[in-house]
Request: fold
Amino acid sequence: MAVVVRVVYCGAGYKPKYLQLKKKLEDEFPSRLDICGEGTPQVTGFFEVFVAGKLVHSKKGGDGYVDTESKFLKLVAAIKAALAQA
Reply:
């Protein structure tokens, strides 16, 4: 069973950051994730990451981008927990 990872990002330029995160997560969890991205039609500053429906990372909430190993590992931990429940 795949874990759904949804990324809502600012459509005004954050798509490359989403694609980079998508690739890194797919490399970490091959064939275990269903990753979808949604670019907002207006400028929002969003880079919100949901794992199995739970908000795990929020740029608007002060987390910034997923640009450090510790931020990435926070997502990995949430995905591992969701996989354990699946």
